[in-house]
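Review form for a predicted model. The reviewer records the input and the model, then writes brief findings.
Reviewer: anonymous (R2)
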Amino acid sequence: MDTMPDVDVAVVGGGIGGIYTGWRLLTSPLAGSRLADWEAARGKLKVAVFEGSDRIGGRLLSARSPHMPDTTAEVGGMRYVTPAQTLVTGLVERVLKLPWHQQIVDVTGNIAFLRGRLLRSSDLGNPTALPYALDPSEVAWLAARAGASPAGLIGRVLTRLMPDLQAHLETGTLRQYLATIKVEGSPLWQHGLWNLLAKGMSPDGYSAARATIGYDCLGGNTNALDLTAEYYDFASGVSYRMVNGGYETVPWELCGRFEAAGGEVHFRKWLTGFAGTTLGDGSQGIEMRFADGKTITARAIVLAMPRRSIELLDADGEVLGPENIGFRRDLASVSAIPLFKAFLLYPNSWWQDSGVKSGRSLTDLPIRQCYYWPTGPTGDGVPKRDDPGLIMVYDDLLNVSFWEGLDKRAEVHKAGLHISRRSGDNTWPIFGRKEAPGVEAASTDPFAQRLLDNWHDHPATQQMVNELHRELMLMHGVDRAPDPIDAAFMDWSRDPFGGGVHLWNVNARSDEMLQRMTQPVDGFPCYVCGEAYSTNQTWAEGALQTAEIVLQQRLGLPKGEWHDD
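Model under review:
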């Protein structure tokens, strides 16, 4: 046994991609794979997940306020698309068999507060009601379509550039079609989306479209091929599903199954770097260095990490060393997109006086999207007017920097230190949460306690809550509303995440990069998975997609029984 490495496979990163990889390694047949010999040498394959924080889940962060312990907020990723996202759908519904519900997003009669004008979503197709100087063709296009929105002007330009787009969208062959498109003699992936949109939209048409789709990044200037595909993930008519008990239930359940199969999970283990080493049996292996000064050897390492997390590692070794210019270039082929989520809990659901109860409302204020959060254990309840209610604020890109200015706590280098562990030199005071009745039952349920801890560990400043409250009142057309009694937030641009999601840059061929990034150096046992370098960016599906490439193509595992052909 002296010749054995400490572990056979070390998975670094306990997000959905990392814990999924560990679980698959220990619950799949190994015959015919590279791992069979490793299992034979030890008697059982040894897999360990190393996570820098104190929780499994990464950017899937579910939370519960003690004031509303039966309602789960999603401070991170919150939903999946079916049937297009086959891996996560199969995992949630066929393997873990978790209860789910349909998310309500767009509701007729909800608010669109644009350029200081309070409109309803039903007004968005009426050009005369919109505070934008649209050109005559845009006015005619909106007026001719029942239920239209300026957000559809993006699709209008795209279908004019690519006439067969809609047909391929309906047959599920959109990406294949986009790969054949050339604009002005260059393939689509060599263009920025905004550059293309500018050729077919008025300036105010673009502003109106970006405001009413809700996400600034969907009208941004990243890779036009991939962002076009992403745009249609959020188009009208898409069906979203949410896990009743919180999306974090998925990695939590996988972690339990991973440990039951003999896997090890090590918390607060921050990887600082790694390099190749010769193992005791003479084979190629990996030596990992951690922030606590300890080293661990493995036959293979899987970096289940996004771009920024990898950039924070020491720049040495076969993969990260300065001589590996190709990998550095590949690493920089995606942009991390800042995302901000905040939840405000009120003593009553005062917004219902403005005629809104569920779904989302939109604005061009920095809060951008306002979701009237469903209540109850099944995730589909609507609170009564005088009952406590929860609002989610959700925005991206430049809007995130607005909220950064109202969060003056000293930055931490790593997210292993909770935001709540702040230094004493804060500029802004922390919001004073109202004391809630004791939730003693939670202590007997580890997952319920985890969700309460997640909420507690993500406090907002008083100034941030004040501004969120002010903008919410403004967009709902009210002068007075009760102060919130609880709040939580997360800015996902913080280290080590770098952003909430990622998008491919212009000139990146994502179909090729998808494969290359999973093993940065040929013949060297280092693998990479995660949402960042997938062709399902912004979704948990992307993390599972790249994990399966590592598992099946690099390590030789069979596909899961629940995978669709």
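Findings: The domain at 125-235 is CATH 1.10.405 (Guanine Nucleotide Dissociation Inhibitor; domain 1).
Further findings: The CA atoms of residues 13 and 279 lie 23 Å apart.
Recommendation: see findings above.
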